[in-house]
Write a structure and sequence with these properties.
Blueprint: E1 2-8, E2 12-19, E3 24-32, H1 38-56, E4 63-67, E5 70-71, E6 78-79, H2 91-99, E7 104-107, H3 108-117, E8 127-133, E9 137-143, E10 146-147, H4 165-170, H5 187-190, H6 192-203, H7 209-214, H8 218-238, E11 243-247, H9 256-267, E12 276-279, H10 286-297
Parallel strand pairs: 1-4, 4-7, 8-11, 11-12
Antiparallel strand pairs: 1-2, 2-3, 5-6, 8-9, 9-10
EC number: 2.7.1.59
Catalytic activity: N-acetyl-D-glucosamine + ATP = N-acetyl-D-glucosamine 6-phosphate + ADP + H(+)
Keywords: ATP-binding, Carbohydrate metabolism, Kinase, Metal-binding, Nucleotide-binding, Transferase, Zinc
Length: 298
């Protein structure tokens, strides 16, 4: 098998060629994301498509594109905050017209989850929740190594579920405004930005995860983990996955899987079964790899 995947982000467009039954990365190229206009961004995507085709010598190779936002499943129009989208134009349709061939478009959190559910860290599980703990919090859901119906386009927006009032009271935290316009979303405490919010409130300075580890501020990390445990329990109560696979910068915290497993267990209802928590196997390549898998299957 040979297929191509493109991970479209706010700062870079990464293209990867995947080969073999395990869909391993064979070649990779990154370019800055043109952000001046929708057409400029399409030019960047087209440049990466041309590179994939030329480098693989396979003009008909399936190519999938992972995008950071909501993809309307009917129109293919993308709604996103950090790339120059157009409310009347579809990325996939415009690229198909330019290159006279179809492209698969998938939400980046969903692409990450599929990659880890099919040949990744969660390959042994039937139901998988992918949870990205980065600047924000997003997720995806896969069943039997395939994206859940309709979820190829729309992420599991667990980051915008409200934090339980008990957790806010327990740690004497304020309700921070979220980028979505609401107050007190999970993202405001559980993301990397959220961890820095907690540090700023308790210590008077904004520190990121690794700074907190280096400074020995384990009490701040404990507060974060406790609230993250509430987030994981919400996932279990609503989706009941067999496994939660972690990605994003905050997932690099030392001992994070054991810490979050303990936090989730402390909030669990009785003896309810809890999912295994694992770290992503494919790391930064999972978005492009998942999009490539979607394209290959189509």
């Amino acid at each position: 098998m040979i297929c191509g995947g493109i991970d479209l982000g706010g700062t870079k467009i990464e293209a990867r060629i995947f080969e073999g039954p395990a869909a391993n990365t064979a070649q990779v190229q990154r370019i800055p994301t043109p952000t001046t206009s929708f057409d400029a961004m399409l030019d960047g995507l087209s440049e990466q498509i041309d590179w994939l085709v030329a480098s693989s010598a396979s003009p008909e190779m399936p190519i999938g594109i992972a995008v950071p936002g909501i993809v309307d499943p009917e129109t293919g129009i993308v709604f996103a905050a950090n790339i120059p989208t157009d409310p009347k134009r579809s990325i996939a349709a415009d690229l198909a017209q330019r290159h006279n061939r179809p492209f698969a478009l998938v939400n980046d959190c969903m692409a990450f989850t599929l990659s880890e559910a099919d040949g990744g860290a969660a390959g042994a599980y039937q139901t998988v929740m992918g949870l990205i703990l980065g600047t924000g919090v997003g997720g995806g859901f896969a069943i039997n190594r395939a994206l859940a119906p309709r979820h190829g386009a729309i992420a599991v927006e667990i980051g915008h579920v409200g934090i339980p009032a008990a957790a806010i009271a327990r740690h004497d935290l304020p309700l921070w405004p979220c980028g979505c316009g609401r107050l007190g979303c999970m993202e405001t405490c559980v993301s990397g930005t959220g961890l820095s919010n907690i540090a700023a409130h308790k210590l008077g300075q904004r520190l990121d995860a690794m700074d907190l580890v280096a400074g020995g501020h384990h009490d701040i990390i404990d507060i974060w983990a406790d609230i993250a445990g509430e987030c994981l329990l919400t996932i279990q109560l609503t989706l009941a996955p067999d496994c939660i696979v972690l990605g994003g910068g905050v997932s690099n915290l030392p001992g994070i899987t054991a810490r979050l497993s303990a936090a989730m267990k402390s909030h669990a209802l009785g003896d309810m079964p809890l999912p295994d928590i694992v770290l992503a196997r494919h790391g930064d390549s999972s978005g492009a790899r998942g999009a490539a898998l979607v394209a290959a299957r189509q």
